[in-house]
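Structure ticket #2291
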Amino acid sequence: MGRNTDRGTGTSALIGRRQLIAASSALGALAAPAIARAQTPADCVEDTLDRIKRTSTFNLGAREATPPYGYKDAQGNYVGFATDIAKAIHANIQKELGIVVALNYIPVTSQTRIPLLQNSTIDMEAGATVVTRARLKVVDFTVADFLTSTEVIVAASSPIQSVQDLAGKRVGVPQGGLEEAMYRQLNQSGRLKPTVTTVGFPDHPQGFTALGTGTIDAYSSDGPILYGLKDKAPDPAAWRVFDPGVNTFLQAFPIRPESSKFKRIADLTVVDLFVTGEWAKLYDKYFGPQGVSPFPMTDALKSLALINAWPEQ
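Resolution: structure written out below.
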């Protein structure tokens, strides 16, 4: 009786083990294709550096009319503070890969830069993009190369002198920028009464033209951009730029996420420019007294230059 019970227990145990083995095999068979699918190239996120190596092309999102960050000169060449930094990154990419990489300029605006990066039309954008928490949810950023604040340009004769004077006025802003949200927040906080009416423009020259025709009362964007518009105007003395004192933001180059190899090259390029003094030369070229858009060196910018001059070891 005891032996029969032992045999029954043994048989049950044996059957249980066989069922477990069979079930494990079946699960393995189901899991194997899933693992294989997860490892196929089509499902893997390609690092931007690998993409550049595969295509031998660096697709750079560049600005055509945003001096001094990025614009076309009289000969039709892409130049600018941000564009020149991107050229240095391109040179280091070629050095890293040991191959010739074509630099392909693709025009972008404030509206198109992020979508074109997300759909892989561009590999990086070189402009005046501010680092924000919302943008970090969809793109990565290189080490910050500049910082700025939102400023305002008006006619020299305009009574608008401060942020309070903007109340009830029509203020032009770049579409896809941060300015519209900033003025909306100022309206909602009750700081501007009556409220500001914002008018969006696809690029800065259109906004500046609207200001000249009286369609808007002021145009608002990053300080250096406004100084660039002023200095390139037929009569620079007819315009005045002022800082309403509402913010200060870091600017950096947006890149696709999960591209650590590419980001390393871009980050070290920016850092090396600070360390070697080349960043200061670019600043003087584009923002200095004789530059494209004279813009005084602020204490915040001096701090950024110190922070980004990383030690060697």
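Closing remark: The longest helix spans residues 2-38.
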